[in-house]
Amino acid sequence: MPTVAGALILVSFLVARVLGSDGISDLFMVSAAVVAGVPIVVTATRALMVKDLSIDLLVSVAATGAVMIGEYWEAAAVTVLFAVGHALEARTMSRTRSALAELVAVAPDVAVVLREGEQVEVPAGAVVTGETVLVKNGAKVPVDGEVIAGTGALDEASTTGESIPAEKTTGDQVYAGTVSRGGFLQVRATGIGADTTLARIIHRVEEAQDAKARTQAFIDRFSTWYTPGIMVLALVVGLTTGDVVLALTLLVIGCPGALVVSIPVAVVAGIGRAAKDGILIKGEEFLESSARVDAVAVDKTGTLTEGRPHLTDVVVLDPDLDRAQVLTWAAAAEAGSEHPLARPILDAAAAEGLVTPGLPESTEPVPGKGITATAGGYRLLIGNAALLDQLGVADTVGAARVADELAAAGRTPMIVAVDQRVAGVVAVADTVRDDAAEAVRRLHAAGVTRVVMLTGDAPLVAEAIGRVSGVDEVRAGLLPEDKLDAVRELQQEGFTVAMVGDGVNDAPALATADIGVAMGAAGSAVAVETADIALMGDDLLKLPEAIGLAKRTATVMRQNITVALATVTLLLAGVFAGGVTMAIGMLVHEASVLVVIANAMRLLRRRQGTTAGPSTATTEPTAPAELVTR
User: Where would I find the P-type ATPase A domain in this sequence (predicted)?
Assistant: First the structure.
């Protein structure tokens, strides 16, 4: 429509100049106003039917009045410029939603499944849970599932934002929409159709980009009162001065078009940019809250650390034993334990080819201290010094001192005793993420003033992690309810708090924080559905990136509102001062819309230094796993 109307305006000028016929020229000019103005009038009428005095109504009344008083050029200029502005706004919004369009585009259409020993190609939605899906080189993964055979490399950018292909082998998880860059995988389908990670992300991005929060709600309320206010002002000025042209000009100049688009275009652009980078922000409300975050509470295990503890030390204290024997007894005691720290000890014993007595005859956990077990006729203890005291085992070889030294070095120690005699001390540690210190530095650079680590570890162990990662404060020995209290304390001190955790034992704290952040949420339905922000990849640097993007988006919102209000104010002043006509005012007004749109679209560009990758963070010794709290 704007193109046709623009052509009619050009014809009108040509007719007036070449033929000198004002009547025919005016006919073309009115036709241009009608062609461009009819959709505007229709929109205004529909809004009136639901008792909404929209901006389109201002333009409709102004253009109609201009035609009635013979100001055909003004009528055509106003409607065409407004229509062009609408078209540009729609095109821009479409472009800013490109992240969602790209997600939809990667959704696979077909799958190759094994049925009765035959390879059968079926629609992706027809795959049955539990079926074996074949993923060949170059193919899209059609389902969420677990690799049951084969090896390959998958491009997971559509879910995690990580461009480097991830190696996959038996037991690994794969996600729908990822693309094979080599190899051949057999995958057991665990999530299909709407139950895939990709489908959940698409659904959440749709909701997020359409949601409204406080700033947008304010703009909506402002427009609701502003439109009738301008109409009343124009009516009063027209009746007072008798200048109909001035009244109609006020109607046109008063259109706050830039104000109306200032927030939505910034929100959609910000959320779209985040989605491309593997950051799922659940809506404008959380985007705004994230922009105010000035304190971050982080869980330790799996967040600041890798979450994969391994054996680091075997200290022999009984002169009649050697390293292998101490580790063998430790593994024998842990063989019947469900505790996370049992696994690294058992794995280390197996890797060294040590033979344990098999499953213990009995295992009894001692909460907060360790376990006792009976294996091969021996009574075994493994735990802390308090366990020795409780069971009357004399520490004559300085086991408690050794344990304290290991804890101070960032390891989690466990004293091993056999038949009331201390054998030695074993220690495990969880490696601090290479990017932990860099992530904390970037959080500070993004305006976060306090980064607090919340952990159930003992103080010595927790302090070691704190020194390596560079957090501002360490709170150790916390239960889940203690983490909740810690978040509340920060809020009571006036901080806007983001809590980062795994969404399970940290659930109370995540729910209480102003922003709950789930890390490594790809494939986790609970995290995608419940977290305010989900970092789809297991990448800690995405956290400062998310907060930084939220703050930039909030800045763009404020800039856009300032531009929009300043433009309207200056134009209205220009109308009363003289010199600003209806056409000139509308041209300036539409220029302000373009400025607002262009400003928001800056958010679509990836900023230098925001991509996650290998960091030169810390090369200090590994830090500890969780303290034994059995």
Answer: 107-206
CATH of the domain at 353: 3.40.1110.10
Tell me the angle at which helices 257-276 and 582-601 cross, rounded to the nearest 10 degrees.
Answer: 20
The letter for the amino acid at 516 is G
Catalytic residues: 299
Q: β-pairing, 310-316 with 473-475? A: unpaired
Predicted local confidence at residue 188, as pLDDT:
92
Distance in angstroms (rounded) separating the CA atoms of residues 68 and 65: 5
Three-class SS state of 457: coil
User: Which pLDDT score is estimated for 282?
Assistant: 75
Tell me the DSSP string of 117-182.
TEEEEEEGGGPPTT-EEEE-TTPBP-SEEEEEEEEEEEE-HHHH---SPEEE-TT-EE-TT-EEEE
Please tell me the predicted confidence (pLDDT) of residue 382.
92
In the structure encoding, which two tokens stand for residue 70, read together? 């013979």
Residue 87 dihedral angles phi and psi, to the nearest 5°: -65, -45
> At 497, is the secondary structure helix, strand, or coil?
strand
Rounded to an integer, what distance in angstroms lies between the CA atom of residue 564 and that of residue 343? 61
Cα(79)–Cα(576) distance, rounded to whole angstroms?
22
Tally of domains within the chain: 1
- The residue with tokens 């985040």 is 274
Task: Give the pLDDT confidence score for residue 462 in this predicted structure.
Answer: 82
Q: What Rg, from alpha-carbon coordinates, does the chain have?
A: 33
> Contact, 135 vs 172, CB < 8 A?
no
Burial class (CB in 10 A: 0-12, 13-18, 19+), 286: buried
Residue 237's pLDDT is: 84
> Crossing angle for the helix pair 244-253 and 542-577, nearest 10 degrees?
170
Q: How far apart are CA 247 and CA 325, in angstroms?
A: 96
The pLDDT of residue 615: 37
Q: Nearest to residue 166, comparing CAs of 147, 188, 193, 143?
A: 147
Annotate 552-577 with DSSP letters as a single string. HHHHHHHHHHHHHHHHHHHHHHHHHH
CA 551 to chain centroid? 13
CA 606, 608, 614: angle at the middle one, nearest 5? 105
Helical ranges in 299-377 per DSSP H: 323-334, 342-351
Residues of the chain with pLDDT below 70 are 1, 20-21, 52-54, 85-86, 88-107, 157-164, 197-198, 200-224, 255-257, 357, 479-480, 502-507, 521-531, 607-630
What is the spatial distance between Cα 416 and Cα 411, in angstroms, rounded to a whole number? 16
**β pairing state of 497-501 and 166-168:** unpaired
Residue with tokens 């021996």, as numbered in its chain: 378
Domain membership flag for residue 15: no
Is 596 contained in some domain? no
In a domain, 502, yes or no: no
CA atoms within 13 A on the CB side of 598: 8
401 to 278, 382, 415, 426, 479: CA distances (angstroms): 46, 16, 11, 13, 26
**For position 88, what pLDDT does the model report?**
62
User: Of 369, 304, 312, 356, nearest to 330 (Cα)?
Assistant: 356
Number of H helices, E strands in the chain: 22, 21
Boundaries of domain holding 354: 310-429
**CA separation for the pair 261, 44 (Å, rounded):** 17
* Residue 41 counted as domain residue: no
